[in-house]
Amino acid sequence: MDIDPRDERWEALVAASSRLRTALDAYRAPLVDRGVAEHELAALHRMAAGGAADPAALSGRLLLVASAVGSVRVLSPALAELRAAVGKFGPGVTSVTVIAPPRR
Questions:
Q1: Rounded Cα distance, 16 and 102, in Å
Q2: How far is CA 61 from CA 27, 29, 96, in A?
Q3: How far apart are CA 30 and CA 37, in angstroms?
Q4: Do 60 and 44 meet the contact criterion of CB atoms below 8 Å apart?
Q5: Model-level pTM greater than 0.90?
């Protein structure tokens, strides 16, 4: 998918991937799949900065990030923002629901 890199969708994706990366960096507790999340966030950021990507590829990377960090409550808002940014690319994007764990 090639679109104008000045398109607001790409800007939203860059901002959302940066925000989640910042939140992940600030989260210092052990996270088993931190490396996966970091790798996939970097790939999403590169795709967004380049302004060209297949919606299915965006979805796949989002799914991996969500799997890696989805149960961490403090990361949920940034993950939801990333999901919304990927969702702006329309049909073909797999839905990912972010569910916060129950409060204890």
A1: 25
A2: 20, 23, 11
A3: 13
A4: no
A5: no
Task: Give residue-wise pLDDT tens across range 59-104.
Answer: 889 999 999 987 789 999 999 999 999 988 876 545 555 555 556 5
pLDDT digits (tens, 9 = 90+) for 20-65: 999 999 999 999 899 999 999 999 888 888 876 778 888 889 999 9
Q: Angle at which helices 55-69 and 34-50 pack, to 10 degrees?
A: 150
3-state secondary structure of 52: strand
Assess contact for 62 and 86: CB atoms under 8 A. Answer: yes
Record the tokens describing residue 74, joined without a space: 């403090």
Say whether 63 sits in a helix, a strand or coil: helix
Residue from 75, 89, 66, 101 nearest 3 by CA: 89
